[in-house]
Specification:
GO molecular function, one term: peptidase activity
CATH class: Mainly Beta
InterPro entries: Asp_endopeptidase, Peptidase_aspartic_dom_sf
Protein name: ATP-dependent zinc protease
Number of helices: 2
Keywords: Hydrolase, Protease
Largest sheet: 10 strands, mixed
CATH superfamily: Acid Proteases
Order of helices and strands: EEEEEEEEEHEH
Mean pLDDT: 89
Structural class: mainly beta
Pfam families: Zn_protease
Low-confidence stretches: none
Number of domains: 1
Number of strands: 10
């Protein structure tokens, strides 16, 4: 019999689509598609470029979302810590993308996760939640449900 202290928290159910918050970016209620076929999550960026600081270090500058999104405020974000990786897109192509770590809030709890940055303007949802976050946060997907996390927090869902 296992000790009570070694028990993992129970798994929680998320829907195929969730509204998520990114507290470090002051973004709330961003639509996300839960995609068990993707390993890493993704966030839509309308502008992505790297500057070089005077000391030679690279600085990633991005505009999250775009002016079509209600949460877009045009404020550029900067990341001193980032990586460049090969990511396989939904159509099977391998693309080189910048990857950052940030907190995503689900069920009122913040989870540290990696997100690739890409132009998702042709996609329906600006954020993709992949398997890595689902596993770490102990989430399972019920494709018949939506916005389970937001509803559990007793917050009104934005229109």
């Amino acid at each position: 019999m296992k000790k009570a202290s070694s028990r993992r928290p129970p798994k929680r159910i998320v829907g195929r689509r969730e509204l998520v918050d990114f507290p470090q970016f002051q973004l709330r209620g961003v639509e996300a598609k839960v995609d068990t076929g993707a390993f890493t999550g993704a966030i839509h960026c309308s502008t992505i470029y790297v500057d070089t600081l005077p000391d030679g270090r690279p600085l990633l500058r991005v505009l999250l979302l775009d002016d079509a999104h209600p949460a877009f405020d045009g404020t550029p974000l900067q990341f001193a810590e980032f990586s460049l990786r090969d990511i396989r897109s939904s159509n099977g192509e391998v693309q080189e993308r910048y990857v950052i770590r940030t907190a995503i809030r689900l069920f009122g709890e913040d989870f540290d996760a990696e997100f690739s940055l890409s132009d998702r303007s042709d996609m329906k949802y600006p954020v993709l939640i992949g398997r890595a976050l689902l596993r770490r946060a102990r989430l399972v997907v019920d494709v018949a449900r939506r916005n389970v996390s937001y509803k559990s927090q007793h917050r009104p869902i934005p229109d």
